[in-house]
Write a structure and sequence with these properties.
Structural class: mainly alpha
Distance between the termini: 39 Å
Number of strands: 0
Helix content: over 70%
Largest sheet: none
Strand content: under 5%
Length: 190
């Protein structure tokens, strides 16, 4: 376990260094990871939410929302990989696509809240997610990828460097725990 924590700390440190050295590439990596997560989320919602209600409109909205999530996730995962040379222009395009997706997703969440309001389903989480999606969409529309995105990635890189170095040093200096074994043999056999 000590060696795994040491290796994990070194890995976090290296990722932090990469985030500081080349933030644009790391931002594109973050977008690709977000795209993959969106595809997984869309598939899981497609399987889960269809079973909540028998209402045909609800099922249709859920299917459209899930498919939109999957398509936007594929775009976010594929576009930066194939158009890596485009750099900031591709990053801004993907940010705009993600913002539009967030607004559509929030609208569908709000619609589902209205449809589920009469049922016994707790919609507080859906409402919070819709508000978060609206805020994230607005943020993606107003921030400049070249300045704010790079600064955020560099700050996260510095935090990763500190955290990775701290974990590596802590893991290296930590003495292995001595374990006392208890005799559990049955004395009645004697």
């Amino acid at each position: 376990m000590k060696n795994m924590n040491l290796l994990f700390g070194i890995l976090i440190f290296i990722v932090g260094m990469l985030m500081c050295i080349n933030p644009v590439s790391m931002l594109l990596v973050a977008i690709v990871i977000t795209g993959i997560a969106s595809v997984i989320n869309g598939i899981s919602e497609l399987m889960a939410y269809r079973k909540i209600s028998q209402d045909q409109v609800f099922v249709t909205v859920t299917i459209v929302k899930s498919v939109l999530t999957i398509v936007c996730g594929i775009l976010a995962a594929v576009l930066p990989v194939y158009f890596m040379d485009a750099g900031m222009a591709m990053l801004k395009l993907v940010m705009i696509i993600m913002a539009i997706f967030f607004f559509c997703r929030a609208a569908s969440e709000l619609y589902i809240i209205v449809r589920l309001n009469d049922s016994e389903v707790n919609v507080k989480g859906l409402f919070l997610r819709a508000m978060f999606l609206i805020a994230a969409g607005i943020l993606l529309c107003i921030i400049r990828a070249q300045t704010v995105g790079v600064v955020i990635i560099r700050i996260l890189g510095i935090l990763a460097i500190v955290a990775g170095a701290g974990l590596a040093v802590y893991s290296y200096k930590k003495k292995p725990e001595e374990v006392e074994y208890e005799d559990v043999s049955d004395k009645s056999d004697e």
